[in-house]
Amino acid sequence: MNKLLDCKEFTKESLMELLELASKIKANPENYTEELKNKVIAVMFFEPSTRTRMSFEAAIQRLGGKMIVTENGKDNSSAKKGETLEDTIRVLDKYADAIVMRHSSDTAAIDADRVSRVPIINAGSGKSEHPTQALLDVFTILNRRGSLDGTKLAILGDLKYGRTTHSLLQLISLFDNVEVYGLSKKEFMLPQEYIDFLSSKGIKYTICNSFEELPRDIDALYHTRIQSERFEGDFGKEEYIIDKKVLDTFTDKAMVLHPLPRMNEIATDVDDDPRAMYFTQVENGMYVRMAILKSILVDNK
Ligand code: CP
Fold this sequence. Notes:
Blueprint: H1 12-27, E1 40-45, H2 51-62, E2 66-70, H3 73-76, H4 85-92, E3 98-103, H5 108-115, E4 120-125, H6 131-145, E5 152-156, H7 163-172, E6 179-183, H8 192-200, E7 205-208, E8 220-222, H9 244-247, E9 255-257, H10 278-299
Parallel strand pairs: 1-2, 1-3, 3-4, 5-6, 5-8, 6-7, 8-9
The structure holds phosphoric acid mono(formamide)ester.
Phosphoric acid mono(formamide)ester (CP) binds at residues 49-52, 124, 133, 259-261.
């Protein structure tokens, strides 16, 4: 891997290779403390973040690298004065060996990559992609389930603007006998282009209107927050809330996933249930991002 712009670039083989590396790093992080010695990574976030930015910063430091950070690029970089993204990248690529970037534009990573001399790592671009999140999501499902083939996945919440779901669908589509079910308010249904994409991969997408319509033997309930920062107006709060009562209508294998932050989508009475995986996702995110950084900056294959 020599950059990470979106999930389209993965094959099943390259994805599994990266997840295998993440597993090795998670098992023995002490073996990887010198990997980024003498490397400087620019971490540039034009949108708010807790997990992605902090886990990238932790990953860089745990791999022995150094970093330069713009934590609120929209207000605290020269973007505020009107500098273009392209010019900003042409500056940062003189200082850093790679650029980790989050931006509100759907095409930001591709635009940055077009002018950058160093690898771009997409940490979230508008409503289009969040590839590092999708990688930690499939890593979590794989670790729990043992295989991604045959996964019965339910996606919930904001399927229209939620970039994590859009990226996850691309990765899960690499596997055999996958089934995908959607449950959302009508304002936030999955756009047709993603339904067509799943169809082109031979994956049936079933739109559901209640928790009861989801299969009882679902493997993963992947909930997401309504992305209110991406549209005008107020469509209210999430209606399909996973609480202990709802979760107990599914089997013991039904893992509950969420990229976080959550609003009201998952009740706190689920947090202690062994099927709640959202804080495991958080932990896995750091190891997956360590694997991404090593793969791009050290292995480069
Ligand atoms: N999941 C995720 O992207 O969280 P942050 O916005 O906190 O980085």
